[in-house]
Amino acid sequence: MGKIVLDRFFPDYYIQVMNLVKGGEMSIHQAEEEVLGLTHAEVGGQLAAEWKFSENLQNVIMFHHAPDQARRYQRLVGLVHLADAICRTLQFGSGGDMLVPQIDPAVMDRFALTEKGLQMFAETAKEDLEDAESFLMALG
């Protein structure tokens, strides 16, 4: 949500953000902070609050890149943080940049995940995505 709003209402600035991430060395989150002084997560979180989304969704939207800053719903925020990193690892969807976000070590600890466990989880997710894609292609 935040990316859409930033691009729609501040297109000249968001072009600068996208130009910074083209080199592949800066995340969209970092580029937004540098150019705009705020991020899509913050904008999305504010919109979620304004639109009266539940508090758990507000927290997920606002802190999915910084789960250590979430004061409530840390498990849910951590799950979305993990899902974001796994999707980016599998190149499923786009985060706006080419970088895979680093997983917060506290999230790994919270879910008792090792690197090997995370890799197995990602492989299972990849297989599930491939099965879903095959199913949708068969329908289409």
Describe the structure in your own words.
This protein has helices at residues 2-9, 11-22, 28-36, 40-50, 55-63, 74-89, 105-110, 115-139. The model has no long low-confidence stretch (mean pLDDT 94). Helices cover 69% and strands 0% of the residues.
Number of domains: 1
CATH superfamily: Hypothetical protein af1432
CATH level-two architecture: Orthogonal Bundle
Low-confidence stretches: none
Q: Fraction of residues in helices?
A: 55-70%
Our Rg estimate from Cα atoms comes to 16 Å
**In the CATH scheme, what's the topology name?**
Hypothetical protein af1432
User: How many DSSP E strands?
Assistant: 0
Distance between the termini: 29 Å
**Cα shape:** globular
Mean pLDDT: 94
* Biggest sheet details: none
- Class from secondary-structure proportions: mainly alpha
**Given this structure, which CATH class is correct?**
Mainly Alpha
> Helix and strand succession?
HHHHHHHH
Q: Proportion of β residues?
A: under 5%
Q: Helical segment tally?
A: 8
List the helices and strands and how they pair.
Layout: H1 2-9, H2 11-22, H3 28-36, H4 40-50, H5 55-63, H6 74-89, H7 105-110, H8 115-139
Structure summary:
The chain is mainly α and 140 residues long.
List keywords for this structure.
single chain; 140 residues; Hypothetical protein af1432; 69% helix
